[in-house]
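Batch manifest line 430
LIGAND: inosinic acid
JOB: complex structure
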Amino acid sequence: MKKNISAVLGLSWGDEGKGKIVDALAHEFDMVMRFNGGGNAGHTIVLGETTFKLHHIPAGIFSPNVTNIIGRKCVVDFFDIIEEITQLKNNGVEISPHNLMLSYDSQVVLPYHKQMDALREKMRGNGKVGTTGRGIGPAYADLISRVGITLGDIANNSFKEKLANEVRVFNAIAREFQEVEISLSELEAHISSLRHSITPFITDSYSFLRKNIAAGKKLLLEGAQGALLDAYFGTRPFVSSSLACIHGALLDLGLAFQDIAETIGVTKLYNTRVGNGAFPTEFHDEQLRSVIQGRGKEFGATTGRARRCGWLDLPTLKVVSSVNNVSAFAITKVDVLDTLDEIQICDSFVSLSDDEDIPYYPGSDEYFAGVLPRYKKFAGWKSATAGAVKKEQLPSDLVSILHFIEKETTVPIKFISTGAKREELIRVEP
Ligand code: IMP
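JOB STATUS: finished
ARTIFACT:
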């Protein structure tokens, strides 16, 4: 049987440029489904002169005839999604229940989740995760604890008793920690006054998707965050709370690895990280950091925080690619490195304690903090690649680096992104 499902995943700590790749590919699909995370994501899409920042809504929203689905295992901020839809509409993007579906089963994020997120961070002190403050951890805690409110509860107006329970629990904690309590009546009234604006979008996405997959429709799975922020597999505890690896999508839809035709893993030609946690290849050179931050606009799309920057790390990329069954890479932001004299790529780790080789991915933050990266050095290409649309336009020094990555990882590079705009993308012919 022909396989009709593909996926686009981040292979690092998020911000790899997945949104742009999904936007560029979406027109080849009937449906695009975001499968994890919530308002913590910030997918930046540049269309013409307009920059859009998507937090919940899949990046297929700009392609006509594509149905965009926010998957069941995403958490959806009730007030922020209404705002996101309104802003996109105000910018001329067509959004209706015909091209956007929310899932009946998705857990709802409410203001007390954000307060709880902030309180948890405050209590951690120096060990704080550095979350986006979007209430993601507490909302996923509801999912796992089988409590809280779902979008279905809002759609069929059965949320009030559950809300009362949640607010009671939250206020008891808030009192204990001298935090501001939530007014149940105000929150309930606020939700009631707005629920009609999103109810038409809320549907049984699982049945919709399974039926359409069976009918041969094409589905693109859109990951948020990145594999290293996966709640189970990432650099715990400095991770997000969702399943950002392909497994999140497979479990949500009841699919197997072999159902996926193609998994495109997205990575920049360098690395970034927002929030805390070990980052072995992080730049220590202040000037280099500011060049990359400036040229790469490495400031969070959701929080505006400056992203930490470093070299690409192949040992981790190899493992993450194999775990996710990545069949091709999209390498993004190559143009950001255009001015550098020298490019480094980490090709191995040794243990900081005994100088022994570490041939595997150190699967938690603690282990990751205990490695020393070894680098292969390449001459910089020192010429402009920004906006290139054909591989032949790329300088040979850059092509050598790309070949090195393919050889080391045994994963072919299918896309090379040379700028923020949709058309600034090279499709490498096999
Ligand atoms: P949370 O997802 O807000 O709980 O944050 C947990 C960690 O994931 C923090 O280090 C965040 O900076 C990071 N994070 C969450 N979402 C994203 C994203 O979309 N891009 C980059 N980092 C993210």
